[in-house]
Amino acid sequence: MSWWDLMVDVLDVVMPLKRWKCSMRNLQLRFENECCPVWIGARCVDDVIFKLCELDASSYHVVTDKTVSRLHASGLFERIAAKAPARLWVADDGESTKSIGMVEHLAQEMVRAGIDRRGAIVAVGGGVIGNLAGLTAALLFRGIRLVHVPTTLIAAADSVASLKQAVNLPQGKNLLGCFHTPTSILIDLNFLQTLPVAQMRSGMCEMIKNALTVATENIPLLEDGLKPAANYSNAELMSIVEAGLLAKQKIMVGDKCERGQAIVFEYGHTVGHAIELAANGRVPHGEAVGLGMIVAAEVAGRLGRLSEVDVQLHHRLLKRNGLTALLPPGVTVAAAMALLRMDNKRGYVSASPDQVAMILLAGPGIPCGPADRPLTLVDLSLVQSCIEAHLTGGANVALEESRL
Ligand SMILES: NC(=O)c1ccc[n+]([C@@H]2O[C@H](COP(=O)([O-])OP(=O)(O)OC[C@H]3O[C@@H](n4cnc5c(N)ncnc54)[C@H](O)[C@@H]3O)[C@@H](O)[C@H]2O)c1
After folding, report:
1. What residues form DSSP beta bridges with 185?
2. Structural domains in the chain?
3. What is the C-alpha to C-alpha distance for residues 85 and 76, in angstroms, rounded to an integer?
4. What does the alpha-carbon distance between residue 190 and residue 192 come to, in Å, rounded to a whole number?
5. Per-residue confidence in pLDDT tens, the chain, 404 aa
6. 32 DSSP β-pair partners
7. What are the 3-dehydroquinate synthase C-terminal domain coordinates in residue numbering (predicted)?
8. CA of 379 to the centre of ligand 1 (A)
9. Mutate to test the pocket of ligand 1, among 96, 103, 154, 266 (most ligand atoms within 8 A of CB)
10. CA of 80: how far to CAs of 50, 76, 271, 278, in Å?
11. Residues 6+ apart with CB under 8 A from 257
């Protein structure tokens, strides 16, 4: 034992409260030439506060939504405010909060409250709050520090590991945005324990997507570990979140702007985004992506690219996650098809008006098309036919009829 270790141990006995021991685990995320530390733990609010104070920001601006404010963010804010100048900004829940009007409103309020270049924005919430706070942090003074404290599974295991910060336009999701690297990501898994089942399942849909596209080694774990009731312990969440972040890292390390190989993470999103927007906030993001993956698998199957075994793997994993393969109530095929034409991957490849660029798989971990931009042009009529056959109860009805 070195003299330093000895001194530290003696200090622990004499003054146990004076020295801080962080109980969180540390991962480093790399985005080409940039990196961002992730600290993960459970029941570790003290550590989260400690890590925030280490930033020595001139002021802390906690951005959250109403639900998360009530459950977690107000408490966290009080703790920060006891140590440093801080403000709490509470937005409405839901996708409609992701608007440029809201970004401008927040920025104006923060400037009125005295934020300067040494200030830090702390996003406490799900992917919506992460994107709203992220874009605000990217634009204020042309970029100030952003810390993510994710409280949904999607945010903790997926969206925080992306530099994309965007808001929606009425014409489509995430059409207005930029890239901004967070200063750090602080995860208390215990915050996720208050998530409704639907939100936990939504996050697991993104985990399934990452396993099918880039982290096939996680498929057996999902086959065994998925729970339709989505009641995961903190220890299970630790494995799930770490696996999610590492899956993203595999590709993000070499494609930080997600314009090349990392487009694969948009798997299921072409149809998924259209369904999510058509449902107007009534369906969680990941669930919409899950429905989008079913359509993508069926399209690839019909084109002879994906085997029936692998199409069924999609259905099996998503069903084990409690997903029902049906368009959400009130969402028509026509509405989804109209929004699909506004997909934000338009322009990557030149498509005719009756085509859409999709990510398709030739097998788990094998995207179709060029490796540096895995997009395939698909006829809209084929997409529509697969939605009708597999998301409107048509497939189930056919199955029932064949049993008669
Ligand atoms: N930047 C990216 O690369 C990226 C990746 C994936 C998703 N996203 C975006 O993220 C958004 C979806 O994120 P989301 O699913 O986290 O949605 P969300 O932020 O809307 O959260 C879902 C709901 O859960 C509630 N909630 C959050 N934490 C909670 C908790 N701990 N307990 C109880 N309720 C809680 C919220 O109030 C909200 O009502 C979409 O807008 C999507 O575009 C971005």
Report:
1. 38, 148
2. 12-194 (3.40.50.1970), 256-397 (1.20.1090.10)
3. 13
4. 5
5. 455 445 545 544 544 444 456 789 999 999 999 999 999 999 999 999 999 999 999 999 999 999 999 999 999 999 999 999 999 999 999 999 999 999 999 999 999 999 999 999 999 999 999 999 999 999 999 999 999 999 999 999 999 999 999 999 988 889 999 999 999 999 999 999 999 999 999 999 999 999 999 999 999 999 999 999 999 999 999 999 999 999 999 999 999 999 899 999 999 999 999 999 999 889 999 999 999 999 999 999 999 999 999 999 999 999 999 999 999 999 999 999 999 887 766 667 777 889 999 999 999 999 999 988 999 999 999 999 999 999 998 654 333 333 32
6. none
7. 203-345
8. 31
9. 154
10. 9, 6, 41, 39
11. 163, 179
- Choice from 63, 159, 173 to test ligand 1 binding pocket (greatest atom count within 8 A of CB): 159
Q: Which of 45, 47, 107 is closest to 71 using CA atoms?
A: 45
- The residue assigned the tokens 């994107």 is 131
Amino acid code (one letter) for 162:
S
CA-closest residue to ligand 1 atom 19: 126
